[in-house]
Design goal:
The chain has one domain: Nucleoside Triphosphate Pyrophosphohydrolase (Alpha-Beta Complex), CATH 3.90.79. About 25% of the residues lie in helices and about 35% in strands. It has 3 helices and 7 strands; from the N terminus they run ββββαβββαα. A 4-stranded mixed beta sheet has the order 4-1-6-5, with helices on both faces.
């Protein structure tokens, strides 16, 4: 059996106005999240982020479209521990963001997600089941607040 690497990415897809794209997990209906996924052997983290965005939304970002936050979350694996090597208890998640000019429709991978929605950052943070996703959205809001207002 091939086990997942316990290193993953979280990619916040958002607009300059603070709208955040959330996806509803197929295997856990009602669980909303940003794009996430595990690193595959031989991939850099930015390659993982680009691949996961493409697989989960149909969007095709280039490496320089993504911003690496240099934020890593270490969390206990609770939802699918059997997918990791025996004895693996924690995952290291690296945070990235992708800013789009405005909300757009995405194409979901039906085996992974049931629905998508764009929400204002406050609602998106409250809707996430994951503390690391919520915290990343809250950090995003700090950066959005620091940007000059457009006329």
């Amino acid at each position: 059996m091939s086990y997942k690497i316990p290193v993953s990415v979280l990619v916040l897809i958002h607009t300059p106005k603070g709208e955040v794209l959330l996806l509803e997990r197929a295997k856990q209906p009602g669980f909303w999240q940003s794009v996430t996924g595990s690193q595959e052997a031989g991939e850099s983290l930015v390659q993982t982020a680009c691949r996961e965005v493409r697989e989960e939304t149909g969007l095709v970002p280039q490496a320089d479209d993504l911003i690496a936050w240099n934020v890593a979350n270490n969390f206990r694996i609770t939802l699918t521990p059997e997918r990791f090597a025996p004895g693996t208890t924690h995952n290291l998640e690296q945070v990235f963001s992708l800013c789009l000019p405005e909300p757009i429709a995405v194409t979901l991978a039906p085996e992974e997600h049931l629905a998508w929605r764009w929400l204002p950052w406050q609602e998106a943070a409250a809707a996430c089941f994951s503390w690391s996703n919520r915290d990343a959205i809250l950090m995003l809001s700090l950066g959005l607040a620091a940007q000059p207002a457009t006329p």
